[in-house]
Amino acid sequence: MGMGGQNGEGCSSGCVKSDPRYTWEEIQKHNTRTDKWLVIDRKIYNISQWLKRHPGGIRVISHFAGEDASEAFQAFHPDLNFVRKFLKPLYVGELAENEPSQDRGKNIEQVEDFKKLRKTAEDMGLFNASPVFFGLYLLHILVLEAIAWATLNYFGNGWIPTIMTILLLAVSQAQAGWLQHDFGHLSVFKKSIWNHIAHKFVIGHLKGASANWWNHRHFQHHAKPNIFSKDPDVNMVHIFVLGDTQPVEYGKKKIKFLPYNHQHQYFFLIGPPLLIPVYFTVQIMKTMITRKDWVDLAWSLSYYTRFFITFVPYYGVFGSILLLTIVRFIESHWFVWVTQMNHIPMNIDHEKYRDWLSSQLAATCNIEQSFFNDWFSGHLNFQIEHHLFPTMPRHNYYKIAPYVRSLCKKYNVLYEEKGLWKAFEDIVVSLRKSGDLWLDAYLHK
């Protein structure tokens, strides 16, 4: 047990026993499939069995096994006192007194300054959502759907009304995607239960997807952004090679599932057009059925039921399926370009064990603020602030942004911001660069 032996054993009666103490070296050994410990505020917890009950999924909490998870714990949970109740039975000891609070040589001053920044945001009320903002946002989504139906009902199913309906539904679906993202991050209501209910309504009934599938996937991305084997968004199942490290590794091993030196070209064929209508749709349905997630499946089927009841009278069954496919096709382009512009051009690599500020800034960048950019991206143009404070309501990102810039400048952490079209262009440039690295390694190393 190492330092854990210093727990007062053998002392005379009346001696006060202290909790077991452990070193970081000992803690880091508890990072196996069946044995997982993590540290929160110097206290050590054994999550080996409990992780199966973790609401955010098994993987996201497992990614911090053997590490200090204090910053992630605070970032993901708006009600810390409630969550700490679940930690008490998992407690096994504390860090030894001579051990630093942060593991692996992280900058303690930087970590402490980020804590102060979070406290500043709390004191400014930036974690309080505006009911008016989110109420109007939901209303504009519902109004777009209503206008789409009214267009067909009034003008019939000719080419022009059909095109108008498709565009209105695509905009509505994309905006519903950003709204479900807000509820999924528990950033609207103070009580988590209301966020969960609203999340299932928006992602399930308004979009036909699964809240649990989204949570388990997306929280991993936030916990370890752009980290291979931990962020599912960079797990491209051999279709693309990303960053500077993976292409060289694939090239040296002579791995060639596709001609990666052309990935910046075939990205346009299999990336934006197919992600939502093919990959996500199949994966979501498969996940709900295999995991027997009947609640999410019921929400999802309520969307499809409503959709076909609405549009079959105008287009028939096959016409309605085609209509839905085209809407998904347009939405998929919108979703891919917006979500990837902040990440693919950034650092993508294996685990580096950075502190929260450094890890999030290495993997994210911002897009210039404007009314259109805010609406078009669901405020994900403030990707840096969103990743640092995932439970903060999006309408407050611009208020905390100057403080984040100042902190980054103090510690020489890159805070990158660019224009929208430059961000789109950088996706293609990044894919081309990675493809060239792969080809060079494939041919010459």
From TrEMBL:
Keywords: Fatty acid biosynthesis, Fatty acid metabolism, Lipid biosynthesis, Lipid metabolism, Membrane, Oxidoreductase, Transmembrane, Transmembrane helix
Pathway annotation: Lipid metabolism; polyunsaturated fatty acid biosynthesis
Gene3D superfamilies (alphabetical): Cytochrome b5-like heme/steroid binding domain
TM region(s), chain numbering: 125-152, 158-179, 266-285, 305-327
GO cellular component assignments: membrane
Cellular compartment(s): Membrane
Keyword Glycosyltransferase tagged: no
Record InterPro entries: Cyt_B5-like_heme/steroid-bd, Cyt_B5-like_heme/steroid_sf, FA_desaturase_dom, Fatty_acid_desaturase
Domain Cytochrome b5 heme-binding: 19-96
Family named by the database record: Belongs to the fatty acid desaturase type 1 family.
Name the UniProt record assigns to this protein: Cytochrome b5 heme-binding domain-containing protein
Organism expressing this protein natively: Pyxicephalus adspersus
